[in-house]
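Intended use. Records like the one below are meant for learning the mapping from a protein sequence to its folded structure. Do not use them to infer anything beyond what is encoded.
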Amino acid sequence: MAALVAIIPIVLLFVLMLGLKMAGHKSAFITLVVTVLLALFVAPAMDMVPEAVADKSIYGVVWWSFVEGVLKAVFPILIIILMAIYSYNILVESKEIEVIKQQFTSFTDDRGILVLMLVWGFGGLLEGMAGFGTAVAIPAAILIGLGFKPMFSALVALIGNTVATGFGAVGVPVTTLCNEVAPGGSASAEAICETSAFAVIQLSPLFVLLPFIILMLTDRKPWLKNLLLALWVGLVSVAVQFICARYLGAETPAIIGSIAAIVAIVVWAKVVPSSSENSESSERSESSELSEQPKFSAARTFRAWSVYLFILIFILVSGALCPPVNDFLKSNLVTKLPLPVIDSTFKFGWISNAGLMLFLGATIGGLIQGLSFGRLMRVLARTVVNLRNTVITIISLIALASVMNYSGMIGAIAAGLVAITGSFYPFFAPLIGAIGTFVTGSDTSSNILFAKLQANVAGQLGMTGQSTFFGATGSESNWLVAANTTGATGGKMISPQSIAIATASCDMQGKDGEIMLSAIPYALLYIVLGGLMVYFGV
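Structure written out for the chain above:
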């Protein structure tokens, strides 16, 4: 009964967003209000409140857990999200995004390679840098401009925008996941690296399978070439992402891994003869031809890529790649706020967070691209205004997750799941993450909702020690926690928000249901494979 009551906020979020088609920010805010009421009046009556705060005033517990949620939402999650979108908006404002688009479409006449480059390579890079729909919208729009059919363009963009989302927007989802389960809400660098590496291991088969599916959807005839290319690109991607995750953390796997994938695809295109010069893709519009693309000088290329280049430099220099710099940033200008009643301390580094690195890199790149500082600040202001609903959504979701945790609702749900699934729970753990992304449209939001749930289940299953997972040694609890983002990346493929972005980009308004139906089989395969990896890795 406690589990059934505790799950009410999650079910309500489903009903509001999917059943009543209510906007995400409204749904999240209403669910937050209901969660607070349940925490105040129902959780104590059903003895759900954890022992650590059971002797405290429930009003104080709820208030300070709400405060903690708001602080964690703003510092640094919302700052990173805003700065990530700001970096992309600079490229749009300076029109340098057009140069980047043209460079991606000028190096091959093999349509399979071109599609893979756009939705896997460039899409992954966009996800790593900005996230929040850019990795679906831009590749899909480019493909349509090159003559590919709208349904095909939408589907391959959705399939491609999956594994990278765990480390999207400079690693916000996994960083948030780790902070949600860490004591005091601030995870150690080692915990983030370990969980990031586990996520890559759990997703590893999909690094090969998804490129193969994308290539086969583009052209089924050269299946052997498609398989070999998928193996080449997938193995390069997963190897680079694992190294970045294990030794650098959550900020760079999607960015550097996607760059490595782009390089791998270019090398393949230069070394292996094109197999589609004399064949036509079934997914290409009959009247369309790839246009001749202009050549760009090194200086022009540097200018177009300067935003992303400087962001990457700042992230690498401030991160694990330069320990002295990293140690200095983390030990200076750090705010610590004690949160009474719930016995927690909120910490925020003003000069060590990824949001500042995004701002500095994007602003310097924007100046190089010819935008004045005043114009850049106007772009930033527009970005903040345009994301106001996202601000409400993220704050509401993180606050309700915090309230659910301290009031005992997360623990009650965990106990119910363990009772139902028992030792088979690890197989279903990615499904929980996928449901969260399906409802909220965000890997980050899914991790906010279910990180503590996964950690609590790990505790109830006795997964509290160290073990070896497919050759990698680490915490059993972190392995199960990582499963949440593994599943969340699969749910991204069929989330209504992602599909809405795809329909808008491909001018397919009203075809949301058709796109979702075409993507569901691939999403189910994705989630099942993720579940098997998690289960057999335990």
